[in-house]
Amino acid sequence: xSFFDISHLSCRxxxxxxxxxxxxxxxxxxxxxxxxEKGTFTAILGTNGSGKSTLxxxxxxxxxxxxxxxxxxxxNTADADNLLPVREKVxxxxxxxxxxxxxxxxEEDVGFGPENISVPTDEIxxxxxxxxxxxxxxxxxxxxxNKLSGGQKQRxxxxxxxxxxxxxxxxxxxxxxxxxxxxxxxxxxxxxxxxREKVTIVLITHFIDEAVRADRIIVMxxxxxxxxxxxxxxxxxxxxxxxxxxxxxxAAKLGAMLREGxxxxxxxxxxxxxxxxxxxxxxxxxxx
Length: 288
Description:
By secondary structure, the protein is an alpha/beta fold. Helices cover 38% and strands 25% of the residues.
């Protein structure tokens, strides 16, 4: 069942001079159509300027189409009466968690959203406790966000969205400011929410290793969808990815190098664990 149904979506932005005169018009998304199913984990890849973040902002009605339609769980985002219901169903996590954290104590920040939609106080505190537990931040509930690492702040931002009980979460470059360990930990949390809680996930990223863990990868370029499919399918086409400014995941590149060196490894290796397993199998097949 489709959660998002996007049909012939186009979005344009005017570039103006200091006097407000239009110098040119840029097309950020160009006649794009696709569907995203409920309960799935979709990664949207692309270089800067590909249109992926503009698409993300249409999914919870931060932007509305210049042309075409975006239907969210049966609601047309162009209808102003649907804006609040859409945003209650679809939570948004941005690149910089400092832009979403507004309270001086973690638990108060997580409870801010539910309070704003008039959730009863007892229910707010239940949601706060549950959301912090789900992202592994319970022990930090009385900390100041200023004392947290970047990855911890991002988890708090996710907990704040979860406390709103959304059916879907859009994450727009959520790991861009994190170190590799922080990125892995955050993506682990997202995968767990999708698998255990069945939250529909749309991850916007330019880190191709993160996209490996999705059910589906969409690759955008110049405002259009250029590749779309399961990770093992999309990430087989090294030549096309290179044309779109993307590289294979590190494990896939290393696997290809080892195959060229004569080691009997299958094509389509996507992550480090899989690569390790296949190297061990190849070692055993060789009689070691």
